[in-house]
Amino acid sequence: MPKRIRVAVFPVAGLGTRFLPATKAMPKEMLTIVDRPVIQYAVDEAREAGIEHFVFVTGRNKSVIEDHFDRQLELEWTLESRGKTDALETLRRELPIAGQTSFTRQQEPLGLGHAVWCARNLVGNEPFALLLPDMVFKSEPGVLKQMVGAYEETGNNVIAVEEVAPENVSSYGVVGRGQGPDSGFEVTSMVEKPKREDAPSNLIISGRYILRPEIFALLSEHTKGAGGEIQITDAMQTLLRNQGFTGVKYEGRSFDCGSKSGFLAANVAFALDRPDISGQFLSELKGILPA
Ligand code: G1P
Fold this sequence. Notes:
Layout: E1 7-11, E2 32-33, E3 36-37, H1 38-48, E4 53-58, H2 63-68, H3 73-81, H4 85-93, E5 101-105, H5 112-117, H6 120-123, E6 128-131, E7 135-138, H7 143-154, E8 157-163, E9 173-177, E10 185-192, E11 203-211, H8 215-219, H9 232-239, E12 245-249, E13 253-256, H10 260-272, H11 278-288
Parallel strand pairs: 1-4, 1-6, 4-5, 8-12
Antiparallel strand pairs: 2-3, 6-11, 7-13, 8-11, 9-10, 9-11, 10-12
1-O-phosphono-alpha-D-glucopyranose (G1P) binds next to strand 11.
C-alpha cells in the first residue's frame, strides 16, 4: 500500500486580474459561490479525501484567506448568544483545527510550478495533493477522493482530466491517453497550453493532482515553459520518464471559476442545489431568462 496522502497544497497567489476591480483589494479566492468563498470548496473537497494538513501558497494582499481559516471568537459568541446555532455549526464544521494549516508566500509570480515549489519544505518527502481552487466541481464523491482510489491501487502520480471541445484545449494542460479505463488510465504525455493541432487529445488537466515528492527536484531547476512561466505540467512530463502517471476521467462536472462565465455558472448551479433558496432563486431566474 503506498503512503497515505495527508497533505494538500493550494496555490492562491494569483492576482485575479480577470476579476478586476473586484479583486483589487480582495483575493479572487474569496469571491463567493452562493455564500461560501471559492477556496472553501477546494478545502472541503480535500478534507473529504482524508487530507489533514492544508498548505496555502499565498502572496501579498492574501492575508484574509488566513483569517478565513481561523476562528472568529467574537462572532462565535455573538451567534451563540443570539441562538443562531445553525450558522455557528456551519462555521465550526468548515474550519480546519488548530495546527492543520500552513501558509507560505510565493514572492514573485513566476508560474504555477514555482508556486508549488514554494511549498516544498512544508510538504517534505511525501506524496501530496495539489488543488487549484479556480476549478470547482459538482461531483459525488469529490474529485480528489475519486483520485485517491487510483493512487492507492497504483502508487502512481494521478491527474484528474476531463474532455473539452478541441478549440479550447490551448487554454489548458493536455494529456495523451494510453491503456486503461476512465477510472484509471495510463498517461502517455502532458503538454501545457498546446496549439490545437499539437494537442495529444482533448483531455485537459482539471486542476487536481496527486504528486510524488520527486517533482520538487525538477521544479527546483526553474525551467521556463509556456507563457515564460515555470509550469508544473513540464515538470510532470519530465518525471514521466521515471514514474507512472495515471489519468482519472472523474465523474461530475467542473466550473472554471477563473473565468467570469464559469464563476457565474457555478453560482447558478450551486444555488439551484440549495434547498433553502432554490425555489425562490429558480423563480427569479425564470423571470430573467428570455422566453
Ligand atoms: C493551470 C494548469 C493547467 C490546467 C489548468 C486547470 O493553468 O497549468 O495545466 O489545465 O490550470 O485550470 P492556468 O489556469 O493557471 O493557466
